[in-house]
Write a structure and sequence with these properties.
- The chain is α+β, with helices and mostly antiparallel strands.
- It has a single domain, classed as 60s Ribosomal Protein L30, Chain: A (2-Layer Sandwich).
- The protein contains 2 helices and 6 strands.
- It is globular, with a radius of gyration of 14 Å.
- It starts with a strand and ends with a strand.
- The mean pLDDT is about 95.
């Protein structure tokens, strides 16, 4: 069982939940995903939203490989090269998670990823 909570003692979150409680079941950890397609080609050079969409496609494939969907995600950790692109990230995230409660989330601006062409990397924890 997954229970998303936003305690009234904490500020209202923007597109995420403060707490994701998991009772029973199993946890799935997904390594950080970058904007490479199945052939290993970069998708969306210079375009954070296009890269985020590819990252979420990759996360979706990883989740599906273990019988999960976006609804099973309880936590995202997001690494972005420039937080000025936050709105673009949020649009891509919202397309991926759909309606309903949002997973817990941490977003960090960093100076580099494994290649200068990558603008975002996301890792996830899911519960099933």
């Amino acid at each position: 069982m997954i229970n998303f909570v936003n305690p009234p003692e904490l500020s209202s979150p923007t597109g995420y939940s403060h707490v994701a409680e998991v009772r029973g079941g199993r946890l799935v950890y997904i390594s950080g995903q970058i904007a490479l397609d199945a052939q290993g080609k970069l998708v969306g050079k210079g375009d954070l939203e296009a890269q985020a969409d590819q990252v979420f496609r990759n996360l979706g494939a990883a989740l599906a490989s273990v019988g999960c969907t976006a609804r099973n995600v309880v936590k995202f950790t997001v690494f972005m090269r420039d937080v000025k692109d936050l709105a673009a990230y949020r649009r891509a995230r919202d397309r991926f998670v759909g309606e309903g409660p949002r997973p817990a989330s941490t977003l960090v601006e960093i100076s580099k990823l494994v290649s200068e062409d990558f603008l975002i990397e996301i890792e996830a924890v899911a519960a099933a």
